[in-house]
Structures are given as C-alpha cells and as structure tokens.
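Table S2 (text version). Query chain:
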Amino acid sequence: MPRGDLRRARHDLARVTVAESEARHRALLGALPDGVLLQDANGSVLLANPKAGQLLGLTLIEGPEEPTPGVPSPRRAGADETSPLHLNGHRRVAEPRPGRIEGLNRISSAALRSGQMQSGFTDPVLVDGVSRLLQVTSIPLLGDDGTARAVVSSITPAADPAPGPDAPVHDADGEDIFRRTMQHSPIGIAVATLNGRFLRVNRTLCRMLGYRADELQARTLADIVHPKDVDTVRARIAGLISNDEDALRLERRFTGHGGMHLWGTLVVTPIRDSSSRAVQLVVQIEDRSDLYQAQGLMTHMTLHDRLTGLPSRPLVLDRIQKALDRTRRSGLRVAVLQCDVDHFRVVNDNAGYEDGDEVLAEIGRRVAGSLRAGDTAGRLGGDEFVVVCDDIADESEAGMIADRVRAAVNEPLVLGGRTLRPTISVGIALSNTADNDPLMLLRDAEIATYQAKNRGRDRWDAVDTGLRKAAAERLDLESQLRAAITDGELELHFQPIVGLLGRNVIGREALVRWRHPQRGLMPPITFLPVAEESGLIVELGTWVLRAAVQAAASSPHPGYVAVNVSPNQMIRPGLADQVEKALAESGLPAGQLVLELTESVMLSAAPSARQEIERLHGIGVRIVVDDFGTGFSALSYLRDLPVSGIKVDRSFTSGLGEDPQCDRIVEALIGLGHGLGIDVIVEGVETEAQSALLAGIGVEHAQGYLFGKPSPRYELLTA
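Corresponding structure-token output:
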C-alpha cells in the first residue's frame, strides 16, 4: 500500500477509535442514575450529563468546548481510552437560568475553598413546575500544586422531608451514595450523626483501624480518638456545628482494634440542610503515621549522638533541668559528671579515626552501663561524655558513681590486635538549689575536669569556689587575648643565638609578649596555656610567624629567625601554606627561617603532619627539635624526619660543672647530634663557666642570658 494511503488509513482508524470511545463515555454518563456536573474554579458549568440537566433544568448543547486550564481536556487521538476524566467530549451547558444552581454552588464552592469533599442539601429547585430538594456531594479536582482547579458534583433527589440527624443518606433509588462514591478512596471516610455515631464507613477506614464495617458502625468517633484527645475533639466539633463553619481540621492520635495507635489528619465537615442547620457529619481520616515516624526519627537524630546513640548536648541540658525540677520535691541534689578520655588524640593519630570511633562507641556503652536506673549518660562531642544523676546526697556519693564509671571504662579493650586500657578524668559539679542553671552545672563540671587532668588524670575532682574563680579569670583572659591579637597588643622580643667561639650572633629566637592595658607586659607563661586550650594558639601562631619573618627581612643584620610552632598548629593542615605565604610577603629567604617543634610533636606526628614537615624541608625551611631530652625516649624521628638541629633543654644546663650527671647527659646529647651530623644548640647558658665547659666538649652554638635577654630590638648583639 502506498505510504500516503497508509497514513490516511491510520488517521481514519484513529478517528473511529476516538468516536467509539466518546460514544462509550456518553452512554456511561447517560446511564448513571445520579446527575453529574463539572464546574471550573469560578463556578461556571462546563458539562453535565442528562440526569443533571433533568434535575436542575439545564439546557445541554452537543459537542466539545475549548479546554480549560486545570480541567480535563477533550480527548485526543492516542490518549488513554479508559480514563473516566475526559468528559468534555460529551455535553456542555448553556448559561443556566438564575436561581437554578445557587444551592449547588454553595456546596461546590465550599469544596473548592477547603480542598475537601463537601455534602449538603440545596434549597428547593423548581423544574417544570415541580419543586425538588436536592442532595449534592462535591469533590474538588486538584492540580499538581495541590490547588483546587475544578469541582465535580453528584446530584440526587433528597428524601422528603430532609433527613434527620440519625438517618442514613440514600439516593432516589435507595442506593447508598457514600458507599458507591467513596468506597475506593485512599482516605478513611465515614458519615456520622452529630453525636459521632458512625452510619457509613468506607473500606479504607475499616482497614486503617482494623475493624469490620459492622464493628465500626457500632462505635462512635470518640471510641477511635485517643482517650487523651477526646475532650478536645468533642469541643471542637461542637464549635464547628454551632459556628456555621465549613470544616474542622486537626492532627490527632487514633486508637484501633487491639489498642493499636496511629497518627492521622482528622477533617470533619458538617452536612447542612437548606436552613444551614447541621444534620450529619462527614468524617475523613488520613493516616500520617509514616510521616510522624519519620519526624520522630529526625527528632531523635537531632537530640542523640550519631556514633554512640547517647543523648547529645541539647537533650543533656533538658535532662539536667528536669532533674533540678525534681529536687524541689526531694530536697536532694543533682550531680553532673563530665568524663574526658585521657590521651585520646594519641589513639586517633596512631590507630586512625575509624578505630577511634570504635573506641568512643565502646566507652559510651561502658559509661551508660555503669549507671543507676534513671541516670542519664550523654556525649557532648569528641571524647567528652557526661553523666546526669539526681537524688544525690553529697560529694562522696557522686564520687562513688564517678569511680564506678572509671572502673568500667578502664576494662581492657582489644583494638586491631592491640589491648588498650582507656582511662578518663571526671569532673563533678553538684547543685546547691533547684534554681541552679543547667549550663552553669555543665560549666562547673568542665572546670573540675581540667583540675582532674592537671592532677594526673584517671581520677575525679569536684569543683570548688577557688576552681570556679580561676575558671572565670581564665574565660576573661581568653576573651581579652582574642581582642589583643587583633588590637595590636602583642609584640615580639628576640633573644640571640650565638657561636661560642666568637660570640657572633647567628640567629634570633622570636618570643611573643602581651602588653596588657592593665597588667603591663605579660610573659608567655601567663597566656600561652589559655591560648592552647582555647584554640587561639593557631591564630596567635600565625601572627607570630608573619611578624617574625617581617622583622628578619627588614633587618640588615645576617642570621636566621627561629619561630616556635605549637602542637595545635601542626595537627591542622595548612602550616606549609602559611609559611610560604609569609616568606613571599616578606621577601625573607626560606633558608633564614627555622621552625622549632617540641620532641613530643615530632614523635607523635600524624601522617598529615609528617607531610607538612617534609614539604617545609623541601622549600628550604629548617626544622629544629626544641627542649630536646625532656620528651619521649624514642629517637627514631631523628632518623625518619628531616631534622637539621636540636636544642638541649635548659634543665640540663643549670647543673653543668656542679652535677656530674648533667655533665655526662649534655656530653652524650652533643655526641648524638654530632654523630647524626646535625646542629646542636644549648639553651639556658647564664655563666662564663658554663660557656667554657660547653666549648670544651665541642658545643658550637648556645643561647641564654649570658649572651643577651629577649629584647624588642631585633638587631641586638652580644653583651
């Protein structure tokens, strides 16, 4: 067959198929015993079947009309032939006579406004000399955005007179409209009397609550509402009936067969007669249990630590407040115990973060398992756990709980084939009155934890007035130091490093000082510990690095500048980037910058920190081990890392010439440095006798008050 003939044949076949489909839908609508009417969002009648035209006295016009946005469109070839929504191919409606559909519009407009099914009775409609009272059920058609775009109404003659509050609703042929139209709705729907007794129920509601239809019809709305919500629902429905409202919407709990519970959205709509008197109720229940379970899970995740499952900080504070509230009745006290894992960073650095998380999870289980019933274990973050106990008599009872927690945590723990014995330091804070603030108790427990760590770790301490005062001063100092970094209150002093033979300056160590507005010039020992604990040391160290290289670059005197690097700076990535940037800005050659790292930092350096050290060495910056001899005994880092020098700690220098042990230790350290081919600098040289002794055993470089005290003048020479 030629291609053109084939195309025409397909087109003719499509027209025949569409015509047959429209004929089927027309026959179906015409056979319905109920009237069916479609209106747009403005209330204009778009189409009606013959029964609707008969009941309302409408003039029907054959043929389709133009499509209306949001309303089912005329059928096109290739569309779904079985869809019951394509009604425009049947009959549309001429402008109805005034007064014919006002009662219907009242009900359909309420459905459009509420987005919910509405039922009710029209005022008497006079058609062909006969006055009829009509019952209308209107269902909104929603667009993709959830907005009602049109409404379809089912219309039947109402029983005469209008039904009473306890009468079931039937159509003219005695068929139950509710059962016929709503049985397959995904929402549970019922028709009920004004006192809540169910007259009709659909399958979804029966399935939702676990009852058969006859069992549910023997009950009332109050029987399926959760007992704690019954009074509220009754009062709201009474207001709905008396206030001439369109609908009531509530989120409530429901009780089904066997005591099962579910959360759902309850929508109650009154069916009103021609005088707007409520005669029955349409009850709709949408099961929202899955949504509430998801919300409950989200709430749990917000209030609980993901790793351990223990309460997190917000929930811990809530538990402290509830415990304080209970003390008003008991007269006892609340104890808050903060538990910090000792040396946990070593576990992370050496075992990795995944194994570290496993250790924390196990410690969390041990802490929780060692408590009394009713006590709370929580995790504040990192390696910090917390315990909340109420009904505590005194500090000794809280201490007994702390000891029990410590003993549980201290049990052996096998990790990657190695056996660990974790320990914790515990700080205890006790409430004095029920008016104590949860944050204050938590802060006091943290203060006591610091004290426990300072006194040797693996122990507990309780906060006292002195500790609280010291902590307050520390917080003040931290705040002031933060401002000092940006306000220009810091300054650098430089102490010379000299060659022993000619006393010529070969370098200068940069030492930070704080010129406090009230307390004067403060040495680093008074504020560096605060900077380390608070994390300000990173910002402070960056300032020192930039100021030191600027001073060295602007000085005409030769030599290098030495800058101390904090452990906190090393464990954070980016140190090499900061150094490169500072050198580029100042113009100082990389070979004239020395970074001093403590022995403990070198030994425990994580892989990332080792990479930073290698990179610094690669750009020409020298690495010197500070306070050598006072840290760990392992010396493998001198072999594995690019170390260019060591500084012998001043504690060994002080006994030179007086203590033979000091002499032998210093001589051994000097021999070790020379053997490895690295520079050796001895700190703390204060006398000519010490200087002569060091020169005699081959020391080339030294630093100390004998050669010059720290001074803000970078170009300071030897005395």
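Notes on Table S2: Residues 3-31 form the longest helix (29 residues). The mean pLDDT is 80.
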